[in-house]
Write a structure and sequence with these properties.
By secondary structure, the protein is an alpha/beta fold. Helices cover 28% and strands 15% of the residues. Strand 9 and strand 10 form a beta hairpin. The radius of gyration is 19 Å and the shape is globular. About 2% of the residues have low confidence.
Length: 287
């Protein structure tokens, strides 16, 4: 049950994970003048109004440094769990994203009335053949563009299988919230090149504008729609608006009905005051 809305004109503010993370969960954006960590973040705001904040990740708990944005944001949450960690800068191996599902199940028994989850998946991150179990190997090189080389078709098949598996994971996450009053956002932190514009694969170089087109989906449970029909109408009316996810915090606060000194309705994509003419500029070097 529930309803899925697909936004069709969304980009990331950066083409790499940690650079994007600096701008996803706080008021730091490309117009900002100060350091990213000086801006108020969504976790402290929500905790101040009695939300239980949770960070669940299938990406390492420390990144390459304990001071990475994702590591810092995770530590701001009331609960943080990781499927894997770095041991002396060496991977023990990255689990499949399904390993995060039991962590969600466990958190759903916490008895808290208001919860805010961040679920950080590996998704379709390169190397693609490592992102899905064998049973999801539905696509083969024969299914791919005959104009590509044999080696490219192999990688494209791996990518398509990774996408198929990622869809399965998102569906499994949604199933866990179908009987609840819940809203789910799905975004990528950056885009990916898979021989579509050039011979490039992965998400480098980070100054390539082809690396910032991303999916943005919002799913609403039936209970949420019943409780907040006006919010659903606003979401439905906004799916074609041009959006950049350095403004994500404004949309989250808008839905939660929270106003802070930094909140700006013109930056919430679902708000009637949303500024569709804001220039979307990426790769801006802030202070």
């Amino acid at each position: 049950g529930g309803t899925l809305y697909v936004f069709d004109d969304t980009i990331s503010p950066e083409a790499s994970t940690e650079a994007s993370m600096r701008k996803l969960f706080n008021f730091y954006d490309y117009e900002a003048k100060n350091e990213w960590f000086t801006y108020q973040n969504i976790f402290n705001i929500l905790k101040a109004v009695d939300y239980h904040t949770v960070w669940l990740s299938n990406q390492e708990g420390t990144a390459l440094s304990g001071i990475s944005p994702s590591a810092i944001f995770s530590r701001l949450c009331d609960s943080q769990k990781f499927t894997d960690i770095l041991q002396e800068n060496t991977y023990r191996g990255i689990p499949y994203d399904e390993d995060i599902l039991p962590l969600i199940d466990n958190e759903l028994t916490n008895g808290k009335e208001k919860n805010f989850f961040v679920v950080h998946l590996m998704g379709t991150h390169y190397h693609y053949h490592k992102r899905y179990p064998k049973k999801f190997g539905k696509f083969s090189p024969d299914d791919e563009d005959v104009k590509k080389t044999s080696a490219q078709r192999i990688l494209l098949a791996h990518y398509d299988n990774a996408i198929l598996y990622n869809d399965f994971i998102i569906d499994e996450i949604i199933k866990r919230f179908e009987d609840k009053n819940a809203i789910l956002f799905y975004i990528s932190d950056h885009g990916e090149g898979v021989f579509d514009k050039s011979d490039l694969i992965g998400h480098a170089p980070i100054n390539d504008p082809n690396m910032i087109e991303i999916p943005f989906l919002i799913w609403l449970s039936e209970k949420f729609i019943t409780a907040y029909p006006d919010i659903e109408k606003r979401i439905a009316a906004s799916v074609h608006r041009p959006y950049m996810t350095d403004d994500l915090i404004h949309t989250i606060l808008d839905i939660a009905g929270i106003e802070t000194p930094d909140y700006d309705p013109e930056r919430s994509v679902i708000n009637e005051k949303f500024n569709s003419s804001r220039p979307r500029i990426f790769l801006v070097v802030n202070k």
